[in-house]
Amino acid sequence: MMRLLRKHRNWLMIVIGVLAIPFIFYFNKTDPSNARNDRFARVYERDISMVDAQRGVRLCNLAQVLGMENLVRSLAVGAHAREEVGPQFTLNRIILHHEATRLGIQPSTAEVTDFVRTLRPFRNATGFDPKKFDEFTQTALPTLGFSEAQIEELATDELTLRRIKELVTTGVTVPDAESKTKFEQIYGKLSVSVIRLQAADFSKDLKVTDEDVQKYFESHKAELKTEEKRKVEFVSLSLTDEQKKLAGKERIDVLQKISDRAVDITQALLEKGAEFHQVAAKFQLPVNATGEFTAVAPDPKLKADPQLTATAFSLTTQEPNSDAIQAADGFYILHLEGAVDARPLSLEEAKPKIVETITSARAREILATKGAEVAHTVRELLASGAPLSFALEKATVKAEKIEPFSLAEEMDPEEAPKEPKKRPPDFVAVENAVATLQPGDVSDFMPWENDGGIVAILEKREVPDQSKFAQKRSTFDERTLAEKREIVFYEWLHDRQLEAGIVVAKS
Length: 507
What we know:
The chain is of the alpha+beta class and about 500 residues long. It contains 17 helices and 13 strands. Helix 4 (about 85-105) packs across helix 7, helix 5 packs across helix 7 (about 150-170) and helix 8 crosses helix 17 (about 465-500). Helix content is about 45%, strand content about 15%. The model is unreliable at about 1-35 (pLDDT under 50).
């Protein structure tokens, strides 16, 4: 069906670099036993293989490149780190398909075609550009092992998602009183003080005994191993300095020739009795060698692309040669020269790491307890009418005043400061902590990153100019309604996740 959209076949665009999968490390653990476990998860009482999961990650990347932010954001809910986005997208996509079947939702071919024509990479100033579509499908998609069918697949997912959201959020409204209250919360100027607590403050006096170490060692033997090491040789086929200056079709043509040559080399390595050095000499390519390196500390010679290190750890003595790996300015082909497998650590070898792990865990526990105590003490004293300075003294903590701000600064360009203000690193946590507080309220303790956390006190909220409410209400209510619908959808999705009985295989 989508072939009808093709009309031009002139120059090709490079988006391969953009499509490089950032989640590769999620599926390439350093423990070789993991590579043999082909099960990624179990959903609806059926196994999802690693191959299916990897395909889901590639689809997530493709959706991002196509500008399908709604689909990625909605199906990646639950991911807490960048490398979790693709896997979470994969799991929630399975649920989406299950629910679409149950509800009888199936977008028509015409709807899918019309939606594809709206995607950002395929448009120019006047609308859909068949030439751009053709260029994308001929150049970008093959690098992921995809065809235009996967564009249709994602378009169907997007339309299905929209219909499900419409169904589950029917009846969601924004009452007048709620609208005004929400407006004042977001547009009012906030005066905030922040109490900061650091885990390091509680780890200095912690003692870890030999008994603690022994107990931890006995219960975590399987995890306490040396790091795997690899040593590889490689050849590279890269653009010259002059070729790097090329753009558009000229650059693409050169890259295509390099790609063809890289494929010839990999084919030659597949021949019976082929040796890496001999093949390299046949193609007049110098062989480079790395020292021993780990996945955590890659060799500097492989810094061109994270895929190189990941690929090195996927090579085996049975299959020591890699496929051609594309980096920013060319291709690499790796050959496994040596491998040091992980081995169990002895008690003495593991002791420093165990002490550090136990100390860090205990410090975080103390931090959480202390943070909760501080929040409770300050909250109770302020509620009794005590001044903030007295409450802080009783809690034996200090607070730092944050320059007044409004939550609207991040979402309304008209409210943004004319000159960017220097905000503390934990400003996002501060915003989240006070978003729903009333003046005089104290937030709960909120961990921040791995080494600390905050307790925020909302001292004052200035009532915003009421004339703004009338001016911005329509847009504001629309955004508020969209947020409420997203919350309802996420609650619905959470219930569906529980019904699906998701069990992710241990890595």
